[in-house]
UniProtKB/TrEMBL annotation:
<dbReference type="InterPro" id="IPR000836">
    <property type="entry name" value="PRTase_dom"/>
</dbReference>
<dbReference type="InterPro" id="IPR029057">
    <property type="entry name" value="PRTase-like"/>
</dbReference>
<dbReference type="Pfam" id="PF00156">
    <property type="entry name" value="Pribosyltran"/>
</dbReference>
<protein>
    <submittedName>
        <fullName>Phosphoribosyltransferase</fullName>
    </submittedName>
</protein>
<keyword id="KW-0808">Transferase</keyword>
<keyword id="KW-0328">Glycosyltransferase</keyword>
<dbReference type="InterPro" id="IPR050137">
    <property type="entry name" value="PyrR_bifunctional"/>
</dbReference>
<dbReference type="GO" id="GO:0016757">
    <property type="term" value="F:glycosyltransferase activity"/>
</dbReference>
<feature type="domain" description="Phosphoribosyltransferase">
    <location>
        <begin position="8"/>
        <end position="158"/>
    </location>
</feature>
Length: 171
C-alpha cells in the first residue's frame, strides 16, 4: 500500500466550507430560536465548536448549544457517553456533527443516543462525505462530497486535536 497522501482540503478551504455549512444550517432552521450541535469526539466535536462560533456570529439572536458525544467506535453495539444530559436536546432541533462520513456507523450510533428523546428535527453535518454508506444515513450539510475507492482513506487534521495546520488528506 502506498504512503502517498494527496491534499484534498487546505486550511482556507476548510474554513470556507465551514462557514458555508453554518449558513446552510441557519437557512434550514431560520425560524428556530435555538439549535443543538452534537459533536462526535474528537474531530466532530471540534468541528461542531467551530460551527457554533460561526452560527453565533451570523445569528447572535439564536441560542446555539453544544453536546459532546464519545462513541466507542470499535464495538459492534452502541456504547456512548455525553458531556451533558441527553435531555438537553428534548423538543429541539439537533445537528449531529462529525468530520468524515464513511460507512455511516458513527452517525448511526450518534442517532441511537436520541431514539428515546423527543426531537423537533435531526440533521447531520460533516466536513467530508465519502459516499460509502453501509447505513441508510446521508449528510444534510457537507463541505465536500468525495467519491473514493474503498481502499482509500480520508484523514482530517484539525489544529485543536492534531497540533498541525487544518487539512484533509486522501491516502
Amino acid at each position: 500500500m502506498s504512503n502517498k497522501r494527496t491534499l484534498i482540503l487546505n486550511k482556507e478551504q476548510i474554513h470556507q466550507k465551514s462557514i458555508r455549512i453554518a449558513y446552510q444550517i441557519l437557512e434550514d432552521n431560520f425560524e428556530e430560536k435555538s439549535l443543538v450541535l452534537v459533536g462526535v469526539a474528537d474531530r466532530g466535536y471540534v468541528f461542531a465548536k467551530r460551527l457554533q462560533k460561526f452560527l453565533q456570529h451570523i445569528a447572535s439572536e439564536k441560542k446555539i448549544e453544544l453536546i459532546k458525544i464519545t462513541i466507542s467506535k470499535t464495538k459492534r453495539s452502541l456504547e456512548a457517553t455525553t458531556d451533558v444530559p441527553i435531555e438537553t436536546a428534548k423538543n429541539k432541533v439537533i445537528i449531529l456533527v462529525d468530520d468524515v462520513l464513511n460507512s455511516g456507523r458513527t452517525l448511526a450510533y450518534g442517532l441511537g443516543l436520541f431514539l428515546n428523546v423527543p426531537l423537533k428535527k435531526m440533521r447531520t453535518a460533516v466536513l467530508i462525505d465519502r459516499s460509502h454508506h453501509q447505513f441508510p444515513l446521508f449528510s444534510d450539510y457537507y463541505g465536500l462530497k468525495l467519491s473514493t475507492i474503498l481502499k482509500e482513506h480520508v484523514e482530517v487534521e484539525l489544529e485543536e486535536v492534531d497540533q498541525r495546520e487544518d487539512a484533509a488528506w486522501l491516502s
